[in-house]
Structure formats: C-alpha cells, structure tokens
Design a protein that fits this description.
The chain is built from no helices and 17 strands. The protein has 193 residues and is mainly β. The protein folds into two domains: 36 residues, no CATH class; 148 residues, no CATH class. The strands form six sheets. Strands 5-6-7-10 form a four-stranded antiparallel sheet, with no helix packed on it. Strands 11-12-13-14 form a four-stranded antiparallel sheet, with no helix packed on it. A three-stranded antiparallel sheet has the order 15-16-17, with no helix packed on it. It is globular, with a radius of gyration of 19 Å.
C-alpha cells in the first residue's frame, strides 16, 4: 500500500506511460497501485480468486481468498499462511500450499475475512425474506451455527481493524459506492477479538 501513485487523468483509454500527455495514466483514475509481483497457479489448481482478506489477529497474519459463484454454493474459501520475516506467502521450494480450504455454502460471495477462529463472508445473495438486501455470514467454526445479518445491496470486500472501528465493508454500485464500519458492539458476536 506504500506504492500508491498519483497519476494524470483525462483519458480513459490509456494505462501506463502517455507520450502525448508526458505522464503516466491509469484508465482515468487519479491513483494507481502498480503490480510489483505475482504468483502463478500450478496446472492442477483451478481456483478462481474473487477477493482476498487479511487476518491481522493471527501471528503471523494470514490471508483468506474466495471464489464468487452466481448460481452455485460451491465457491471455496482458501486460507494462506504468510512468512513472518518477509510478509509474503509462505513457500517451500517456491511452492505455496494452503493448509485450509473448504466450501462455504454461500452463493455470490463478495468478500471474506477470518478473525481468529471466526470466518465472515459478505454475499450479494438476497437476505432471506427480502428483495434487495444482501447478507453477512458469520461462522464460529466448522459445524457451528451460522449467524446471518443484513447488508446493503451489492456488498464487496471485508476488512477488520479493531482500533479503527471493527468490521469494514463497501458497496460496488457505480456513483453510489459507500464505505462504512460496523462497530464490534453491533456485530452478532461477543467473541471478536
């Protein structure tokens, strides 16, 4: 996140250096975050990453990624360990393996996050009994009861910052993108640490 760059705006068709404008541009965005590295999927991995969440409650921190599936409940959540010394994915012989993957049983997963043993999932699937309200799922462990909460339409990723107000999310509706936090006291759990 230290690499955010302010770039010139004015031309949606340019990504990168523009000799005509004598400046870097990013599809008419005012700021860009350059890609500095990448991981490649092996031939046997068929994951389709839609989001990534950072669990700061674990030491070292870890990532959780997930798959968006429109009509199926087969989207997977996959946890990745981070190397404490480098902050990169933990690898052995340049190979990264996940110690934990499971089917969440949630359609239209938009964001996921683990906080200790809890897993939170935002979904654009309709909250039961409503026509346009989305859902926030909370799992306290495999086989445990799932807690469900309403979210505004078309939620996206999740982030957790204990010192900054709890659980954060945003919506992805063009020109109606809202960012907000849900304080711990209002979350359907007494166990958020």
């Amino acid at each position: 996140m230290r690499r955010f760059l302010k770039v010139k705006t004015g031309d949606k068709s340019i990504v990168g250096w523009s000799a005509k404008n004598n400046a870097y541009m990013g599809h008419n965005y005012a700021y860009v975050l350059p890609q500095v590295n990448l991981y490649s999927l092996c031939k046997t991995c068929c994951a389709r990453f839609s989001f990534v969440g950072l669990d700061r409650t674990a030491q070292p921190p870890r990532l959780i990624t997930g798959e968006y599936a429109v009509t199926s409940y087969n989207g997977r959540l996959i946890r990745w360990l981070l190397d404490a010394a480098t902050g990169r994915l933990q690898a052995t012989d340049n190979l990264v393996q996940s110690p934990f993957a499971y089917f969440a049983g949630v359609r239209r997963m938009q964001g996921g996050l683990s906080i200790g043993k809890e897993v939170w999932i935002s979904s654009s699937d309709k909250y039961p009994g409503t026509s346009s309200i989305a859902s926030l799922y909370r799992y306290t462990g495999l086989g445990a009861k799932v807690t469900l909460r309403k979210l505004p339409r078309v939620p996206e990723d999740l982030s957790y910052h204990k010192a900054e107000g709890g659980l954060w999310t945003l919506t992805e509706v063009p020109k109606k993108r809202y960012v907000w936090s849900m304080p711990e006291a209002t979350l359907p759990s007494a166990g958020c640490k």
